Amino acid sequence: MTKTVEPLVRVTGLTKRYGDTLAVDGVDLMVRPGEVYGFLGPNGAGKTTTLRILTGLISPTSGTVRVLGGSPGQAQVLARTGSMIESPAFYPYLSGLDNLRLLAEYAGVARAKIDEVLELVDLADRAKDRFSTYSLGMKQRLGVAAALLKDPELVILDEPTNGLDPAGMRDMRRLIRELGSGGRTVLLSSHLLGEVQQICDRVGIISAGRMVAEHDVEELRNEQELVIRARPLESAHSVLRRVLGGDAVRLYDDTLRATVGPNRAAEVNRLLVEAGIAVSELRSTERALEDVFFELTTEEKAHAG
């Protein structure tokens, strides 16, 4: 018998209102043990609000939320969770090291762990400098170090590469991949598609407060489409929409993209030729994740409007 692995995070029908503003609208979310889950969406989509609910910082208006088998904010849940939500907040007049010492004392963490996490985020050589002298990227790294102090089972990071230069972004992504491969579960939010594509196992796409899709990143990466150049382009677009369905065909400048497998290339070519359309190019390619993200978020914005 196959043992069912319970998700570490399960969210159902999550809604959050601020007066007349609906910030999160019926979100369903599931994070499995040992994966790096990317919560992807444009700024203002509802990512941070959702993460604040998961960490017990704010309460939902409606819906059910379970984290590590308990409710957000419970002591036993917080003890197994490390998080960095929005900009990390530390005492500006204390050094990075002293800020972590203070947090370790509150959390009952051994002092030896502080040196370990400082090395992990590459801040050991600046640990004795005041927090107020840190660059934005260094402040982000100290925030991640604080999230790792308790050696948590679940790590929740809100835009962890915000403010980092390209080298810092590379190092942070490497660190997150290592956390995932080291047995921890990581839930991170981002508005950067390339970031999620590089480091995440699964992705949930949120737009205008609604979860519009949830996919394995590898499945998205391997999705195929046909790229077609034909004249007259508008006639080709009309023919393919009628045969393949409106959702399967998209118009990009001087090309058409059809979300169908390469096994249908000959059929598509025949349909166009029989309609008197001249086909100059028809090839199969991997569908760009940028296109998937753009289409899903655009459709949801139109629906919300």
TrEMBL record:
Q: Where is the ABC transporter domain?
A: 9-233
**Which keywords, in A-to-Z order, does the entry hold?**
ATP-binding, Nucleotide-binding, Transport
Superkingdom of the source? Bacteria
Q: Which GO terms describe its molecular function?
A: ATP binding; ATP hydrolysis activity
Q: Which SUPFAM superfamilies match?
A: P-loop containing nucleoside triphosphate hydrolases
In which family does this protein belong, per the annotation? Belongs to the ABC transporter superfamily.
Protein name per its UniProtKB record: ABC-2 type transport system ATP-binding protein
UniProt source species: Kribbella caucasensis
